[in-house]
Here is the input.
Amino acid sequence: MELIVDGKRIATRDKGFLADPADWNEAVALVIAERERLALDAAHWEIIHFMRAYYRDYHHLPNNRQFTKAVQKTLGPDKGNSRYLYGLFPGGPLRQVCKIGGLPRPPSCIT
Here is the structure.
């Protein structure tokens, strides 16, 4: 499967995750989000950019619990809880954030 963004073909794998994370930009994220049936707003972007920075800094992806705790530690308890994160990313916060953010598929992702 592939995406077409601004006339460029972008390869995907693992259920729509980017084959090459270097292909990511916000235009790519918008196309992926549309496929996930999400309209991104500032709250979505905050979590997406948080996760991209986390991956850049730590070179690994957290599990779901670690993800929620990391968001809580950095962005506060109002945003670092399952209710808030599932409200933004109902298809599974960690999975959708990584997919839309151009990151690898989380190891804990079973779908």
About this structure: The beta strands are 2-5, 8-13, 17-18.
